[in-house]
Amino acid sequence: MGQRDRVASRCAPGGCRIAKRMSLSRKSRPAPAEGELLFTLDPHPLEEAVTAYAGLPLFLQAVRSLDVGGCVRQCLHLKQRQRGFDEASYVESFLVLNALGGECLEDFGRLREDEGIGTMLGHEVPSPEAARKFLYQFHEEEKVAQAQRELPAGQVSYIPDESAALRSLAQVNQTLVQEVGRRCAEQKIATIDLDATIIESWKKEAQPTYPGNRGYQPMLALWAEHATAAGDTTRFSSAARNCERVLLPGRRRLLGEGTPAMVAG
Predict the structure, then answer these.
(1) Chain centroid to CA 230: how far?
(2) Which of 229, 226, 202 is nearest to 213 (CA)?
(3) Closest C-alpha among 66, 84, 168, 156 to residue 123
(4) pLDDT per position as a tens digit, 139-175
(5) Which of 66, 95, 91 is nearest to 179 (CA)?
């Protein structure tokens, strides 16, 4: 040790080396959270349309490659005036709403705020009120009243006949399923999974369900191998679970000739 170390050793308990090293100060580096932002904010608005739904084009490509819009134009005729959305634009808008996680008509309002959606679609999505009026065109109160009149004594659940508009929409879905079968000719078996889901509702028309709450129980026939909806119907209250005759009229006709044999799931 040098003279300085010996002096520090006499003055510091435990030896001078530790005392000297602890007294040395290191140059501290700032933490990442203390630094400046690595980006700057541009106060000028973007000229491009921006969207939070970047995965939507892939879904649209699938829908339009199956020519859903063209089939709607051929089968569904509800529009009585030239102005406003056509049937194909309405149907596509509802498909987009469902694909993006929409749960009610009011969610159309949120989609309308996204400028990029209209750019990708080539048309705007309807307002919640316009979408509601479009749905009302599929409803025929007389069909519901008839089902209630024909309800056997002691039963409270019923399945009304579909309106002409609903049958036209079902034809669109049948054509879509047939096209899927045509493109998947190697698939020899179609397993049909029948399942019902309770959708809780506080509307006055909603009926009691078996858990005790009120709502609707749509029954869905799903082509399991391709996760494709082959048929559906709306059940009022806890209708009989055997709805196969309602969902799948003419199994071969549903998928088309030359498509897989159907096995009830």
Answers:
(1) 17
(2) 202
(3) 84
(4) 888 888 888 888 888 776 777 888 899 999 999 998 9
(5) 66
Residues contacting 134, CB < 8 A, separation 6+: 78, 85, 90, 126
Cβ distance 69 to 91 under 8 Å?
yes
87-99 and 128-136 helices, crossing angle to 10°: 110
Q: pLDDT category, 196, cuts 50, 70, 90?
A: confident
- What percentage of the chain's residues is helix, strand, coil (to nearest 5)? 45, 15, 45
Structure tokens at 85: 């959305």
Amino acid at 53: Y
Q: Is the pLDDT of residue 264 over 60?
A: no
First-residue to last-residue Cα distance in the chain: 90
pTM of the model: 0.72
- Report which of 221, 226, 227, 220 is spatially closest to residue 187, judged by C-alpha positions: 226
Quote the crossing angle between the two packed helices 56-65 and 68-75, to the nearest 10°: 50
In this structure, what token pair is assigned to residue 241?
A: 């679970």
- How many angstroms separate the CA atoms of 98 and 123, rounded? 17
Q: Where are the beta strands (DSSP E) in the chain?
A: 189-196, 199-200, 207-208, 214-223, 228-236, 261-264
Give 158's DSSP letter. B
